[in-house]
Amino acid sequence: MKTNVVITGVSGRMGVALLEGVFADEALTLHAAIDRSGSALIGQDAGAQFGLVSGVKVTSDLSAALHGADVLVDFTRPEAAMQYLAACQLAGVQMVIGTTGFTELEKAMIEAASQQNAIVFAPNMSVGVTLLINLVEQAAKVLNEGYDIEVVEMHHRHKVDAPSGTALRLGEAAAQGLGQDLKDCAVYAREGVTGEREAGKIGFATLRGGDVVGDHTVIYAGTGERIEITHKASSRATFALGALRAAKFLSDKKSGLFDMRDVLGFK
Length: 267
Ligand code: NAD
Hints:
The protein has 267 residues and is of the alpha/beta class. It has helices at 13-24, 62-66, 78-91, 104-113, 127-142, 165-178, 182-185, 237-250, 260-263; strands at 3-7, 28-34, 58-59, 71-74, 94-97, 118-121, 148-155, 186-187, 202-208, 214-221, 226-233, 256-258. A seven-stranded parallel beta sheet has the order 3-2-1-4-5-6-12, with helices on both faces.
């Protein structure tokens, strides 16, 4: 049976990649395409930008869009995602959340909602990054003494949150490998006379510019050697394909919080 998906933020960079992915996937049906009210796309056919007639018009009417839907896939902004989360809870629709930049409170609300709805929540839906998270944790376990861990990321000039959700997830994986909580060891900024680097801290550096889709490197700097684990995304299709795989994974789930490691069977 096909999975009926709702895509939000269809005017956005990820929204476009997701629509393209749904149209190309025979196991998926585009049930609804949502954008914020006031978007120039409202009322247009969701396939128009690909030269297709899908029969689905872009709408901002959430409750009508969710009726009969299986999974909503959201890559927008935290304030929008929280509204979609509440609506999905009421409508009993499962959710794939790729949006990043949530507060701790919002993350706790997502976790609470997963008692009632099945949710895949991951700051990076690519297969490569999912593998990277495992490698980073393993490397931190082995290099837990005498190595300084730094996470460096670069994204396009339009990105609004920093460090990226993926960089934070990689930091969490490294902290887990060290047997620590990232909250207690993260250093997000350095400026001026900072003093020497403290052992056991995990540093972050954020670069922004151009059209970079997403580069992440975790560096383990020791005495006499340095290990670097890098992932570079060259197209948003990688995130869209992962998110749609997550949507199919949810089609037989009723509740629970999952990440891409569950979807890809890495756990
Ligand atoms: P974008 O700015 O190109 O698109 C954002 C979309 O959200 C637009 O369609 C916009 O209309 C909509 N939107 C914004 N505010 C809204 C609101 N208040 N209500 C309803 N809709 C609203 O952004 P993008 O590059 O497509 O990225 C979107 C999100 O996805 C970001 O949080 C980004 O970090 C995240 N992202 C996650 C992954 C992943 O794998 N998890 C990959 C890429 C991007």
